Amino acid sequence: MNRVDPITLEVIRNGLSSIADEMALILMRSAYSPVVRDIMDYSTGLCDTEGRIIAQGLTLPIQLCSFPRVMRFIRKRFGNDMAPGDVFITNDPYGSGGQHLPDIYVLKPIFQGARLAGYAATVAHHTDLGGIVPGSVAIYATEIQQEGLRIPLMKMYEAGKPNRALFELIEANTRQPVEVLGDLRAQIAACRTAEKGLLSLVERYGAEDFGTYIDALHDYAEAMMRETIRELPNGVFVGEDYLDGLGDHPEAIKIRATVTIADDTIDIDFSGTSGQVAASINCPISLPESAAFTAIRCLSHRDIPNCDGYLKPITVRAPEGCLLNPLFPAACGARGVVGYRVFDTIMQALAKVIPARAIGGSEGGPFLLAAGGTYQGRQFVLNEMLVGTWGARADRDGIEGISNPAANISNQPIEMIEAEMPIEVVRYGFVPDSGGAGRNRGGLAFVREFLFHQDATFTLRGDRRDHPPYGIEGGGAGAPSGHVLIARDGSERLLPAMPMHNFTARAGEIFRLVGAGGGGFGNALEREPARVLADVMEEKVTVEGAARDYGVVIDAETLCVDHDATRMLRESSAKEAVI
Amino acid sequence: MSKTYRIGIDIGGTFTDIALVDDEGTVEIRKVASTPDDYSRGIALGLKAIIDDFGIDPGRVAGIVHATTVATNTILEFKGAVTGLITTAGFRDVLEIRRLRIPVLYDLQYDKPQPLVPRRLRLEARERLRPDGSVKTPLNEDDVARAAEVFRREKVEAVAISYLHAYANQAHEIRTEEILRDALGDGVYICRGAEILPEIREYERTSTAVVNAYVGPVIRNYADALAGRLAEIGIDAPIEMMHSGGGIMRLAASVRRAAALVESGPAAGVIACARLVRGEGRGANIISFDMGGTTAKAALIENGAAARTDEYEVGAGINLSSKLVKGGGYPIKMPFIDVSEIGAGGGSIVSLDSLGRVAVGPESAGSMPGPVCYGRGGTQATLTDVFVTLGYINDVTLAGGSIEVDAEAGRAALRQQISDPLGQDLAVAARGILMLAVSTMTRAVKAVSTYRGRDPRDFSLIAFGGNGPVVAADIASALGIQHIIVPLAAGVFSGFGLLRSDVEQEFVQPLLVDTKQMPADMLPGIKARLRDRAMDALRADGYDTGLADYHFSADLRYFGQAYELNIPGDMNGGDIGALEEGFHCEHERTNGHRSTTDPVQLVNARLSVTVPMASKIARFAPAPRFERTDRPVNFGEGPVMTAVVGREALKSSYRPGPFIIEDYDCTCVVPPNASARLDALGNIEIEVTPA
Asked: Ranges for the Hydantoinase A/oxoprolinase domain (chain B) (predicted)?
């Protein structure tokens, strides 16, 4: 067969992505830990016989590139030692393609008879894999050995037979064996689902024709991506952004991206980024890669298939030993925040080329709160990964109450948390005046407060306090984030964004987590007073904020704009801005 | 003994379809224009006509079954009530924060749906329940009174109440309703979250209550108007409404559960398709394709059963019924027939943007002002004007003469607005627009087939709705589908489906208990209470409880999971063992694994009760006669004089296309690459040769 029929190509493409979605659904519906079942911090995918990704579930963009690296190690180590019934497992960033220890990869080669037909791939963030803190994300870890159980790439099933020693080792090394083993079963079940689905596709079209269509799919995605890049002007564009830094006296950590657009290719070079650090925010290269692909992909309006082909025109480089390509034994448990900052950095570079398609800074990526203790005779772990805000766009406001653009995760139902743990959520809502001012306003920050009903240990990883989300074309930055511990007497204590130790909350204390507001777009003094008034009516901007940030004077009683006073205030504000 | 009658009425955005059956099973059908300013007026006019035509004594009408798009349109057009929400203090933004996830990746120009209650009308009351329903903080009634004051000042027409953990204890919500009722009077519609959905997960429950409150007053007014109109023409029969789950309920019950009417009409059509294939044992794998004036809808029927879901999002633009794609609309957690819907119908407006790109829909001219060629004041060209220009539909009259067509006006609008600005020949532009509309509508079909890994070529298409059979062959060609069924009464098929539906209601008891810790007498007790509730509800609605069928089931999961599986079981003798075993098996079947060591949690007990109501169907009465004349039709190679025939002209052997079958209720286009025949029951079967 030589001719590729477009309808068949589309049926196969949609068939593959529906298998990946079905895997995601099975994983979510049968998982045990809130991280997987509610927050949905996991990804599913299918790879072809060469290990190239051919479909991804509608999960996390930022995990897209993790499968190809693990696949490379599997093919290198087990290429000649693979049989039906094998299932591979790893979580190791060093030598196996992992990112941090809580993310366990489970992959299954799929055979049609004796012939390899492809691979099912899953990765899920497990609730606890041991180490010094509940949740296994200790930001103050300095070596990976402190972070928990490392599982080098190995077979968890060999020809259908489980590796019992491995399961017992995992069970003995986690604070939450029921959840971890249950989630592993869910991952294996997702792989089995994929096996059925992929085999029925391969059988329907025949292995050879199927292979031809897979090649066509990669070619098609690559062509679409090249077309997208060709529409951009050639040139070299630099973006820089910062992480707040570590501990009580943080020093900024720099991320620098040099984006070179040349015809139909893009090269992203992270030279100039800070070196790796003695904390667990070091970020294995596959995450910056995924973040870079996500940012570039956001520029395209085209419906590009989620497959290896579209990655080809893009190259990503980071010097060894820098924050984005750390060397063993750097700790990397809390590296996720860096991926989001990489997205922000590239977005700022691209905003110089095509501001019309760019977005102001978002809340900063997921804020982590991991709290643990003992409840009703067993250990519990609350893993919160909180997102919530988009920055403003060229033609519209940002959004409050949404997942970060590089993630697509959910929030945990408050009622589920309270039904299962000695923790009460006492507030979840928006913070007025927190969106970056601009012709278009950044989205509002979220606030979520946790009341501990009994003593608990907790760790945090935030960011975007000293370096709040950027605005574009004169738009203001979003409001900074905050971590506050409130004692029983109501006194408040500010905790660091990236604290280098854990805390103990006493029963009756409240922890308040405030995300950052989204960055604004354009000059706030140009925002139509009617839109400012609408925000005031919605209690998203206060009357004081309207005057201070937008130069719009609104009568607090009648909620009417005073146009004369507004004109005068805006004129004087504009003069101040010039001085 | 003189005959009695049941009447099915399906209101679409454009037409109102009426089907009438007598107790001998003879069916009559009528199609009249909808009257969106007051839909009940169109119903009354249509009913009056049908009653007068057949000389029926209005007192002999024994039942009215109704489906309506009113609830859906209310949400799509943001024309619902001014709605307030009262929540537990600290949580008024839960509604707007949603579950954060969105249905698209990599789109930075995304806009999320605006909340149905603005922030300033989302108020809070201090109160707090624990997950077990015990009271931590008593309800602060002053807060509720203050909220009532704001609601009154802001002229709020509906209020949703949603407190945390109210599924476990409704006392605070009930007391809040009392205070609001006293302060606001009977005119304000009030919906309590735990009453409409007594299940854990605050956002989904709040959203369901808010949607219900937002459409509630609209449905209440609608119900009052409808009952009034029917009384005027002398019909005092009980009125039943089709709900999204494919069953019917009393009009009064539908006012309380207004959100359940969201997919009312589409559900009726799918039920009719399922009955058709079940009854006839033909190839039971079907994609139903229903196209009216406003939208195109598709659903999957496998082995004779329609796919269902219990989570639905209304207003998501295109509703692609894949469960991972969420966040684009307004969630309702109720039983739904799983229908994918896209905003393209006969009334869809054809437009040209500044870059010269043509778009079809999603804006619709509806029934008023309607397509230009209907001459009711419509000025913007629609897809129907394209059909007329191509000769796909009659250029003089439609619906057997009840609608006059001004073809020249339609052509002129199309020429002025589209083909002249593009510098194209009118016929070429019309073909291009048709193909564009077809590719848009195929997405609804793909959503239930290729998006779920099903090859549409393995399915037959059942095409119905006023415009379904007009484009069915083109849609089938685009997807490689080879077999189409156009049933009798295709143009009013949803209205006909109403006569084929049963009463169906569901009752839920939240439990959240470990199966190993359940007292032995617990299950029989729960079962008895659910049954009492169901019988009370049926009796209150005037149904014969003696005819009712009860189906018990339980939602179970492994302790620690978040999603349940529904396991049927009669729960007799309190035998939890059978339920547990059923759960292990179903978990293995659905999710591919089981655990015999993990504790099993019983989350909800459910009772689904049905009362058979479906009328027996024996035959269709001959449709009103009207003239048919051959006309030139453009199938892409320029106009070709094409035969126009009635359904009865077809034989049991295939007649090659091109030709057009004009029925009273719809037009069926058989293009040159297709042929059609009549089966023994009067359905048209079309074979399409793949392009």
From this structure: 205-506
- Say which range, B128-132, B634-638, B666-670, has the weakest mean pLDDT: B634-638
What is the crossing angle of helices A336-351 and A286-297, to 10°? 40
* CA distance to A410, A417, B135, B625, per residue, from A420 (Å): 18, 5, 18, 68
What domains are there in chain B, each with its CATH number?
5-75+221-261 (3.30.420.40), 84-214 (no CATH), 264-344+438-498 (3.30.420.40), 504-611 (3.30.1490)
C-alpha R_g of chain A: 24
Q: Is A178 on the interface with B (CB under 8 A)?
A: yes
Of B322, B324, B562, the CB nearest to A416: B562
Q: Which of A110-119, A570-579, B106-115, B477-486 has the highest mean pLDDT?
A: A110-119
Sign of CA dihedral B82, B86, B92, B94: negative
Q: Which two structure tokens, joined as six digits, stand for B181?
A: 């009722």
**Among A residues 58-97, those touching chain B with beta carbons less than 8 Å apart:** 58, 61
Distance from CA of A248 to the nearest CA of B (A): 30
List strand residue ranges (DSSP E) for B47-196, in order.
61-68, 83-88, 122-125, 128-129, 135-137, 158-162, 189-192
Cα A106 versus chain centre, distance = 20
pLDDT at A2 over 60: no
Q: What are phi and psi of A340, to 5 degrees?
A: -70, -35
A440 φ, ψ (degrees, to nearest 5) = -115, 135
A18: left (phi over 0), alpha (psi -120 to 50) or beta: alpha
ipTM: 0.93
B64 contact partners, CB below 8 Å, separation of at least 6: B6, B7, B9, B230, B235, B237, B238, B239, B240
Note whether A166 contacts B: Cβ–Cβ < 8 A: no
Helix (H, G, I), strand (E, B) or coil at A115: strand
For B525-571, list the strands marked E by DSSP.
549-558, 565-568
> What is the phi-psi region of residue A559: left when phi exceeds 0, alpha when psi lies from -120 to 50, beta otherwise?
left
Cβ–Cβ gap A410/B94 under 8 Å:
no
Reported as a single tens digit per residue, the pLDDT across B42-82 is 888 888 888 888 888 999 999 999 999 889 888 988 899 99
CB contact under 8 A, B563 and A22: no
Question: What is the C-alpha separation between A279 and A271, in angstroms, rounded?
Answer: 21
Sheet-wide strand order for B83-88:
B122-125, B83-88, B158-162, B189-192
Cα torsion A402, A406, A410, A411 to 10°: value is -70
pLDDT band, very low/low/confident/very high, at A1 (cuts 50, 70, 90): very low
Question: Which two tokens mark A505?
Answer: 């909350």
A327 secondary structure, DSSP code: P
Q: Are B561 and B475 in contact (CB under 8 A)?
A: no
**pLDDT of amino acid A242:** 97
Kindly report, residue by residue over B644-687, the tens digit of the pLDDT: 998 889 999 999 989 999 988 889 999 999 999 999 888 999 99
Two tokens, residue A125: 């963030």
The model's pTM is 0.90
Backbone angles phi, psi at B238, to 5 degrees: -60, 145
Q: Are B358 and B431 in contact (CB under 8 A)?
A: no
Contact yes or no for B120 and A413 at CB 8 A = no
Tell me the backbone φ, ψ of residue A390, rounded to 5 degrees. Answer: -110, 150
What residues of B are in contact with residue A40 (Cβ under 8 Å)? 101
- pLDDT level of residue A431 (50, 70, 90 thresholds): very high
Distance CA(A364)–CA(A343), nearest Å, equals: 10
Q: What are phi and psi of A93, to 5 degrees?
A: -70, -20
